[in-house]
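hey can u run this one w/ uridine 5'-triphosphate bound, need the structure tokens asap thx
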Amino acid sequence: MHRKVRKAIIPAAGFGTRMLPATKSIPKELLTIVDRPILDHIVAEAFASGIEHVVIVTGRMKGAIEDHFDHAFELDVSLRKSGKNAIADRLAGDTPGVGSISFIRQQEAKGLGHAIWSARHIIGDEPFAVLLPDMLMVSERPCLDSMMEIYRAQGGNVLAVERCKPEEAQKFGIVSFKPTASGPLVNGLIEKPKPGTAPTNFFISGRYILQPEVFGLLEDQKPGVGGEIQLTDALVSLMRMQEIRPFEFVGDTFDCGSPVGFVAANLHMAMQRADIAEALGPLIERLADAANPGRGTRAA
Ligand code: UTP
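ok here u go:
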């Protein structure tokens, strides 16, 4: 029986420079996908996957994140006074249960690995999940929930991976595997390989289940690519001590930390909503036609 994964870390202390100027005063994690902050989707994925306690790593200029997960007392009273009970009920239903979410500050944005290490005392000596809040992963079954199934059967560490175009490998943490009797095991990891040197086109796509021994490795980890303390570098050492299994996620992943991913996520999620799709669908068609006048006539 493997120890239960009860806690998850969501690192949200980065500067979000790719989304400037929006992120000058608004945390990137609170930018909205339709009418819901990105972070709400990620916290919901964690709880839907059986996580009992979420730890959000924040930093300077990220105070609004804590307020977002608080009970908005005045708002609740005012909404109910004006008969908007359905909205008030929805907000109350979305607020995590008392004590199920906590916050820790990463005083300096020294990299993803350092952000994870900042939460070590809250996690303690037990396995935990990591969800990157800018990676919105849409599928019928939450990505982390599928990873939990692998973990329950085999223990160890689990990484969500996806395939990218080979020419895009330099933007990601790239993974290689070896086959074993109990399924593939990760046997190589490299953060943002130089163009043309990536061993595969499988990238780590933003969800992890890790054993607590990684904290000791992060403590000694030297800065890597970009001068940041990289989680991928610590995983290279972890891989020599423990098994790391890949889970290939099949669904729609959006990197909401980049303008193109953010807009695509908004369009995708808006089109899932009947109340919006009716108005938005024809507009998208019209814009696509205007951008490419020959569209739709080619097959004829
Ligand atoms: P990213 O590299 O995507 O986020 O890190 P970033 O640094 O905010 O974005 P850019 O590159 O400047 O546009 C992945 C996640 O790790 C968090 C980020 O907030 C993001 O959610 N992170 C990154 C931290 O919490 N601390 C850090 O020091 C770095």
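The pocket of uridine 5'-triphosphate is lined by residues 11-18, 28, 57, 106, 109-112, 114-115, 132-134, 257 (CB under 6 Å). anyway lmk if its weird
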